[in-house]
Amino acid sequence: MGKRRTRCLIDDLPLHIKDQVDAMLADTRITYWEIVEYLDSQGYAISKSAVGRYALRLDKSTQRLLEAQEQTRALVELIKKNPDADYTEGAMQIMAGELTRKMAQAQEEWDEMDLDKAGRLMVALSRSKVYKDKVRQDMQKKIDLAFSGMESDIMAAIKSDAALAAQLKEVLQKAKEKMMADD
């Protein structure tokens, strides 16, 4: 079953008139009544409420585009600063934010996405988070084991120099912390 897109009389206007309406809507000094009068002068009888609904839909689309551009810009900046970083967390945060907003709006959005589908997406997202946390815990255990074994081996080799042993222990601790950092 295809999803129906919301349409109004303004969508069916000739492009040059629709563009003029869009420009008039962008100018906050122009009232909806003035836009209705303009349309009437062009031979199109469209109500003030229809203009208002169209303006709300246009604003919502513009806002979504701006938010998507901002999220993309932030992700690109993150990639530039940390080329070796794990970006799944950022992508998951964007998806969680979008799903949360979709559920919170609960207007026409509910018509566009079945509640079952939104729920399945939230479950999949939470499973991904649990999996990521488990992988992180497993990685931490492996790192702890590896560094513990390495520390024991090195300490046995340099037992005679206590200052060097303390310094090496500090270096190993810093390395372990850097490996688990979220940068």
UniProtKB/TrEMBL annotation:
InterPro entries tied to this protein: Phage_Mu_Gp27
Highest taxon above the source species: Bacteria
UniProt-recorded name of the protein: Phage protein Gp27 family protein
